[in-house]
Amino acid sequence: MRPYLLYSDGEGNIFEDDSLYAVGRAGWDAFEVEADQWIPLPEGGNLYELPGRRGIGIDVHTGEMRLCEKGWAVAAFIPPAHTTLWLSAYETSPDAPTLPLFCYTAAGWMDGKHWVTAVKIEQDIRQEAAGYNEDAITEGTKQLLQQYPENRLVKHLMENCCMTYHCPAARNFSLHRWECPIPVSPACNANCIGCISFQPEDESIVSNHDRLTFKPTVEEIVEYTVPHLIEAPFPIVSFGQGCEGEPLLMWETIAPAIQEIRKHTQRGSININTNGSRPEWVRALCEAGLNSIRVSTNSARKSIYEAYYRPNNYQFEDIVESLRVANSYGCWTSINYFVFPGMTDSNEEYEALRKLIRTTGLSMIQWRNFNIDPDWYLGKIGVTETGEMWGVKQMMEMIREEFPDLKFGYFNPPIERIKGNYATDFAHH
């Protein structure tokens, strides 16, 4: 399998160049992609041009790598539940604009369809594009706003997240199903380079959406989450969303909210998505009744983590301890692992990840696509050489072989999946 390279004419039209085979990027370099690492572009995926960048491919006649001179390079957005294996390969001109905070997966054309370098890592259907009925979402939003007219969180989730930014979690909440978001913190104790809710005015990129501007009360949280847990299929309520800072900073609100929720129902799962910066606050939430925790990280290596997160008053060792603490309380522990081919699958990262899994008793890795301009990211963290690498797919297989009880996925699992059959107990057709 050797798909042809894609290019854009700069006017929204994308073509194949049948003189070049598509390749993939890892770290700073371009590589030929093995046939088993291409899949058809999944439903909900899209293609976009990369201005100021010339695609790199393999000449079909000479077998040598060269630039495509016909237009701008092309990359793919792959939908949730899929993990990228290779990035789009290109050469960037000095005046090229910084790319927005999306994932840039390698793509090509063959046999009348688009192909991408990815693997489906998750069978849960909760964010499949085909599952969103716009009329039902509009009606569900209207009903929730009428049902909770004074609740600032519901208003934020419906008017801002659901209807403006089309947040999948908020859209699912409007449909009364699966995972329901609970943003709680307008502040953060990290300065992540690729933050999706806040960027300095002088930065060359902008955040994907606006950050929460208020601190919700326990009453506001409990008012809409209890009915969701009682009524929704495979219900989860999750603190820590893309439209906020760090939820642990609001632990003194979250802990009593968890306790109050559990006074009304024992159904479903209570989760927090967090940077895991304060183990003592994680302990307090576990004691309050937290069921699962997902800690985000771009790396299992301290130097790479801290270069990206730029933490305030905490360090990498604290997130490791938070996972250890949560595990000691019987909490389901995941990492939200930002996959960057060439970095994530380097030999050094592989060894660090093995150590992290063993040290923390990790339950799950969520192999998430890293939404960031590759050149910009590597430049920001000061990486010029990525070293020997395994390949993302090979690294996954090696980790799975060594840690057979460790689960792979993309989403926070519901309590039915955690305590029942991981292979079947989740949202599906």
What does this structure look like?
The chain is an alpha/beta fold and 429 residues long. The chain has 2 domains: 4-120, no CATH class; 129-419, Alpha-Beta Barrel (TIM Barrel), CATH 3.20.20. The chain is built from 12 helices and 21 strands. It has helices spanning 134-147, 152-162, 168-174, 218-231, 251-264, 279-288, 302-309, 316-328, 347-360, 374-380, 392-402, 415-419; strands at residues 4-8, 14-22, 24-26, 29-31, 38-40, 46-50, 53-59, 65-67, 72-77, 82-84, 87-88, 90-92, 107-110, 113-120, 179-182, 236-239, 269-274, 292-297, 332-339, 364-369, 407-409. Strands 1, 2, 6, 7, 8, 9 and 12 form a 7-stranded antiparallel beta sheet that branches. Strands 15-16-17-18-19-20-21 form a 7-stranded parallel beta sheet. Helix 9 links the parallel strand 19 (332-339) and strand 20. It starts with a strand and ends in a 10-residue tail after the last helix. The mean pLDDT is 95.
